């Protein structure tokens, strides 16, 4: 079962798989069609892209996680141009961790490596692109490890709901110094300015998780 919104890549994969003796029971271009096709065809393995209509965000990966929740033993191989952290770890943790793979699309160009990964996942193995492993491990480290002792102290006071002025009084420093510490904290926690998020709240969440 193949899900890929790019017609050119989808047809190329269908031809490649057929050439090496695999039967593609259905090839679809969006996550909704993927869910329906799996229910209809009960495939031996699902190969899906991450970004698919309608939102072109992570619909394919979310569909893969949903399919594994419904059928923990269904082998799923995800292909992506990048590492989608929000669901990648959840996918790899699904079921008992067997019969699942996450490859970057560069691997598809290495035909033998791609076909070997496909066989291993179909047989119940786990295949993860080295770059995916590197990024997931980096994200799972303590996010506060890059902060200085003073920055951790400031973040702890922010978590208590303190204002910059209150933090300055507590630490006997200027408000300007507190502002610099907060700017450094947000930078080290990879929290760039964004209209839809409150960075102080996200920093506090990182503090609480750690």
- Radius of gyration, in angstroms, nearest whole number: 22 Å
What name does CATH use for the topology of the largest domain?
Rossmann fold
CATH architecture of the largest domain: 3-Layer(aba) Sandwich
Largest sheet geometry: 6 strands, parallel
Q: Give start-end ranges of low-pLDDT stretches.
A: none
Helix content, binned percent? 40-55%
CATH C-level class of the largest domain is: Alpha Beta
| Class derived from helix and strand content | alpha/beta
The CATH homologous superfamily of the largest domain is termed Response regulator
Overall geometry: elongated
**In total, how many beta strands?**
6
Count the helices. How many? 10
Strand-residue fraction?
A: 5-15%
Quote the distance from N terminus to C terminus.
40 Å
Order of helices and strands: EHEHEHEHEHEHHHHH
Q: Give the averaged pLDDT, no decimals.
A: 85
Q: How are strands sequenced across the largest beta sheet? A: 2-1-3-4-5-6
Quaternary state reads single chain
Number of domains: 2
